[in-house]
UniProtKB/TrEMBL annotation, chains A, B:
Gene name per UniProt: acnR
Organism of derivation: Planktothrix agardhii
DNA-binding region per Swiss-Prot/TrEMBL record: 39-58
Signal peptide: none
One Pfam short name: TetR_C_7
Entries under PANTHER family matching the protein: HTH-TYPE TRANSCRIPTIONAL DUAL REGULATOR CECR, HTH-TYPE TRANSCRIPTIONAL REGULATOR RUTR
UniProt entry keywords in alphabetical sequence: DNA-binding, Transcription, Transcription regulation
Record-linked InterPro entries: DNA-bd_HTH_TetR-type_CS, Homeodomain-like_sf, HTH-type_TetR-like_transc_reg, HTH_TetR, Tet_transcr_reg_TetR-rel_C_sf, TetR_C_Proteobacteria
Protein name as annotated: HTH-type transcriptional repressor AcnR
Residue ranges occupied by any HTH tetR-type domain in the UniProt entry: 16-76
GO molecular function: DNA-binding transcription factor activity; transcription cis-regulatory region binding
Recorded coiled-coil stretches: none
Metal-binding listed as a keyword: no
GO biological process, one term: negative regulation of DNA-templated transcription
Length: 212, 212
DNA sequence: GTCTATAAGGAGATAGAC
DNA sequence: GTCTATCTCCTTATAGAC
């Protein structure tokens, strides 16, 4: 396999060894200190390369930041959506909703990198609107769409507005992660994850039949 | 009324005219540029005072930032929770949920200051955990508690876990604001607010009676 | 309390050798 | 392509006059 073919296999790999190092260093710094709080000196040091090399690869600080966030969004997409699509073919709504909820929470609640990434994208969404949109496109939209598709085909009798219901489910889970972990509220307003999941499962399991 | 009594009436007013100016300048700068992206020079200029005056009042940049965010959290609390508590005494669940949803969305979706404030608190929640907790304590917790109290007393027959259901309702609305406005996703995944509200109203209106 | 002026250090970005 | 050394500007914070 030659170099040209390799670049078509994945947009994440084979970008050069130095570039990989720079991404790794930039990841550490931007996730911890934010965009304005990160210096290119520390990125270079953390990556183990000189500052000039960083500029040679990514042009300027903004270019590096944008490339990093887009790369991370793609990576998260593969983890959260692609690798779990197969599981969605179960027919029992209760089982499917429980599985989706567990997938989202398992990949969020204890993953400090993910929590820092969400903080970063939301925090910079006013100054980098395109990055916020990339995040929505790669992580918010697919989750809602996949669940909507499922609810539409499997629960069309009981759920009047599947897309709105998908947003209820995803929104509840996202807000739970935001409140408990990202905003560090788990000691202030504790809530067991299973109570959230059970309540969501109930919503689709015995939902109101339209009155007959 | 003398000065001592005045300070007990509200923690928001009567902190000195210069301090008020500084808060106003700091508000503009921090909400737009974030913590690290804001310079004390621009805060002073925006406030119309000298930089030394800012330092005399608030010690350092961090002190000013913390004071500003705490002040804003209190202000938002009064707008979002206190001023709407009376409306909660309606007995119809459908009416109450619709009212809460409209209160939250009316005070969020079009309020650029509020959206920027949420961006700021989430974005800085890793570096200023106490501020994140203040936000949860003043804005997240009261909303959930008030709604939980209502659902517990008024819907105890149909809702098995009122606190979890309160989080479903609040979480759905918060996530809607986050996706559509804060992360600027309204063109990417459009959704009418009334579809969200109607779906939430249905949840409490004809919720599953436990099987008899 | 408030101002002007300044200290001391860090920031983004580049020139030029290799 | 990568490095070292450097340029220039901006940052937080304070000293000292009033």
């Amino acid at each position: 396999m030659d170099a040209v073919e390799q670049t078509e296999i994945s947009q994440l790999d084979n970008i050069g060894e130095k570039a990989e190092q720079i991404f790794e260093g930039a990841l550490q710094e931007f996730l911890v200190h934010g965009y304005a709080g990160t210096s290119m000196d520390r990125v270079a040091a953390s990556a183990g390369v000189s500052k000039a090399t960083v500029y040679n690869h990514f042009g300027d600080k903004e270019g590096l930041f944008i490339a990093l966030v887009k790369r991370l969004a793609q990576k998260k997409y593969q983890i959260m959506v692609e690798s779990h699509k197969a599981e969605l073919m179960e027919t029992e709504p209760a089982v499917v909703v429980r599985q989706i909820a567990n997938t989202i929470l398992d990949n969020s609640l204890d993953d400090q990198e993910h929590l820092a990434f969400v903080r970063l994208v939301i925090g910079e969404s006013g100054r980098f609107p395109e990055l916020a949109k990339t995040f929505v496109h790669h992580l918010g939209k697919p989750g809602i769409e996949v669940l909507t598709e499922y609810l539409t085909t499997q629960c069309y009798i009981t759920i009047l507005d599947p897309e709105a219901m998908a947003r209820v489910i995803i929104g509840t889970l996202a807000h739970y992660v935001l409140m408990q972990e990202i905003l560090q509220g788990k000691e202030i307003i504790p809530m067991e994850r299973d109570r959230i999941i059970n309540t969501l499962v109930d919503l689709v399991d015995h939902h109101p039949k339209p009155e007959i």
